[in-house]
Amino acid sequence: MLWQPGRDIEELLIPFLATQGREVAVDEVMAVYRPVSLGRGTSRDLWAGLGLPGGHDATYLQGVTATPGLRLFLVAVREAGIPVGVLSNCIAEHSVHLRRRFGLEGLVDDWVISSDVGLRKPDPAIYQAFAARTGWPLAGCLFVDDRPANHDAARASGMATVLFGDARSDEPAGHTPAPSFEALARLLGIDLKEA
Question: Same domain, yes or no, for 150 and 189?
Fold first, then answer.
């Protein structure tokens, strides 16, 4: 939900590979991507495993944009005194590159990245790792994500949940919806226009 496109494998990585002359199926990409996103390798290992030796991070990540309203939301939340932690299934080098590129490092209190902790959402253990890393009790946290399976695990861990993004008919009920950062700010009682 921080970055667009939201379905990065299907909507970004596979099309990027095609521009590099590599036609690779989703399951083949995931067989390489998943272990790296769990910390069993670096981004260079990702590219080598996908048949593109060398570094391609900067070129690949040019296809990523921040979700509209993200920075304004984070500034408003910080001004309201609400701590923010990010829990992301991502490759560490990609996460660092993007947060620096979009100027988010000083706006987030802690980043818990799957490749740093060796766990991926929706594994229940990653939510416990988040609590251990931040020192925040999960029962006091609001989990915001765009994938229902991640919400189910977060709720089971004790977190309240907000389903971010456009609602789809296949999404289960029970998670508070927020189609945008403006809507999320309203749920938190924050007016972005005053931030």
Answer: yes
Query: What is the dihedral sign for C-alpha 108, 110, 111, 112?
Result: negative
Domain identity same for 120 and 164: yes
The reply to whether the predicted model has a pTM over 0.85 is yes
**Cα(130)–Cα(86) distance, rounded to whole angstroms?**
9
Structure tokens at 30: 């995931």
Domain boundary among 61, 82, 105: 61
Asked if 88 and 74 count as a contact pair (C-beta separation under 8 A), the reply is no
Strands 3-4 and 65-66, sheet pairing: antiparallel
Total tally of structural domains belonging to the chain: 2
**Burial 27-66, CB ≥16 within 10 A → b, else e:** ebbeebbeebbbbebbbbebbebbebeeebbeebbebbeb
Determine the residue type at 92: A
Expressed as residue numbers, the domain containing 91 is: 66-194
Checking phi first, is residue 65 left (phi over 0); if not, alpha (psi -120 to 50) or beta? beta
pLDDT tens digits, 50-94? 999 988 999 999 999 999 999 999 999 999 999 999 999 999 999
